[in-house]
């Protein structure tokens, strides 16, 4: 099953491409410039161990066409609406996994939600009900994804209005060796996306002895 990553030439998109390829999932990397995506795909391929799935580079539309069903959106929030408007005609029959967080311009320690309540809800409103949008992978740092000799150090919260699309997304994410939890409908993204600036604040604080931390859901010990 080939997946597409739109905005795949950015740090988080590259990290996801590497992780999925290592997990055996072929990746079509998408960018506005197909040649740049092809160059990045070649660089990422050089980092892959033997036996990994292939990473290829394309323009955004070609990447979507190469995907069997799952399309991950990993662009900056400033490009979120314009990218979705441009790609909407090509997303029929796909599931859009939106990992975008609306961080405040100039201050990533704060969030600036769109009128819809979250980036996930904004994407669903723009695309319409026929294209299911799932919010996921908001709270994983690009540095963590790109550090391939270490496991991903967090759980993943997944939300969206289409239950079957949520389940497909959770199954895909679990291939990365992490746990994914069903967090409910798209409105839950208001809470999930807002966790990211809190993590950024903690991770850059001089009062803690670590960086690039994530979140985990812990079961009771009794």
UniProtKB/TrEMBL annotation:
Any one GO BP annotation for this protein: NADPH regeneration
GO molecular function, one term: cupric reductase (NADH) activity
All copies of domain Pyrroline-5-carboxylate reductase catalytic N-terminal, residue ranges: 2-102
Domain of life: Bacteria
Record key words, sorted: Oxidoreductase
GO cellular component, one term: plasma membrane
InterPro entries the record matches: NAD(P)-bd_dom_sf, NpdG, P5C_Rdtase_cat_N, STEAP_metalloreductase
Protein name: Reduced coenzyme F420:NADP oxidoreductase
Organism (species): Paracoccus alcaliphilus
């Amino acid at each position: 099953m080939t997946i597409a990553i739109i905005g795949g030439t950015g740090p988080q998109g590259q990290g996801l491409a590497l992780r999925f390829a290592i997990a055996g999932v072929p990746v079509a990397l998408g960018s506005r410039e197909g040649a740049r995506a092809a160059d990045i795909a070649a660089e990422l391929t050089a980092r892959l161990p033997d036996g990994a799935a292939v990473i290829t580079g394309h323009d955004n539309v070609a990447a979507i066409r190469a995907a069997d069903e799952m399309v991950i959106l990993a662009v900056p929030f400033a490009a979120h609406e314009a990218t979705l408007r441009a790609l909407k005609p090509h997303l029929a029959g796909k599931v859009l996994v939106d990992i975008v967080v609306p961080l405040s311009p100039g201050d990533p320690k704060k969030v600036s939600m769109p009128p819809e309540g979250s980036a996930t809800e904004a994407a669903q409103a723009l695309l319409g009900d026929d294209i299911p949008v799932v919010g996921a992978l908001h709270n994983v740092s690009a540095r963590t994804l790109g550090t391939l000799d270490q496991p991903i150090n967090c759980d993943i919260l997944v939300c969206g209005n289409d239950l079957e699309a949520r389940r497909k997304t959770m199954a895909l994410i679990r291939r990365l060796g992490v746990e994914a939890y069903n967090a409910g409908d798209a409105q839950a993204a208001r809470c999930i996306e807002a966790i990211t600036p809190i993590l950024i604040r903690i991770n850059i604080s001089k009062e803690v002895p670590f960086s690039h931390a994530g979140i985990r859901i812990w079961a009771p010990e009794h």
